[in-house]
From TrEMBL:
Provenance organism: Paenibacillus lutimineralis
Keyword Transmembrane found: yes
Domain annotation HTH tetR-type: ranges: 1-58
Coiled-coil annotated spans: none
Protein name (record): TetR family transcriptional regulator
Length: 180
């Protein structure tokens, strides 16, 4: 799956997202188009799909219980990104750039963001001993995903910035009540 994504990103950079076909990606990855669709349901999914949720869950579960949920999430997100190799981080940045600059990918990523929001609500509710549909927990998960999206947009416009630092600073602002 990672190899297919790597070839896809290379082709998207070289020829453009819309100009690159699934058949070209499959050929570059030395697989058939039908194999491509076993990994990814759509061409958009080759960009929007990632394997970071298990890292986030594990890092969140490792956080000290005396931290509030937002502090634990902030630490977990930073920890999960710190665990990425340089190549994984580069791929994440390339995917982010595409998602934030190609309208079809930005729209497709909303589903991924909503799924991640549900995941955050689940792990926060388990930590807090509340139901996942608790409005405060969903609001916190939504706020964290909103911060993540704002950082992704900012980073797409300022690729020279430090993504991890931006995310940490933005979550800290949220934790402090986002005083403007």
């Amino acid at each position: 799956m990672a190899a297919v994504q790597m070839h896809a990103l290379r082709l998207f950079k070289e020829f453009g997202y819309h100009e690159t076909t699934v058949e070209q990606i499959a050929e570059a990855a030395e697989i058939s188009p039908s194999t491509f669709f076993r990994y990814f349901a759509t061409k958009e999914d080759v960009v929007t799909t990632d394997n970071y949720d298990p890292l986030l869950i594990s890092a969140f579960e490792d956080q000290p219980t005396d931290l509030n949920p937002l502090q634990a999430l902030r630490n977990a997100m930073k920890s999960a990104m710190d665990q990425m190799s340089d190549d994984e981080f580069t791929t994440m940045n390339e995917r982010n750039q595409l998602i934030m600059t190609v309208p079809a990918l930005r729209a497709a990523s909303l589903n991924n963001l909503a799924q991640t929001m549900e995941l955050l609500a689940k792990i926060i509710s388990e930590r807090m001993g509340n139901k996942q549909d608790n409005l405060a927990i969903r609001t916190l998960a939504g706020a964290v995903m909103g911060v993540n999206m704002s950082v992704m947009l900012y980073y797409a416009e300022h690729p020279e910035a430090d993504f991890v630092k931006l995310l940490d600073e933005s979550l800290t602002l949220l934790e402090q009540g986002l005083l403007l």
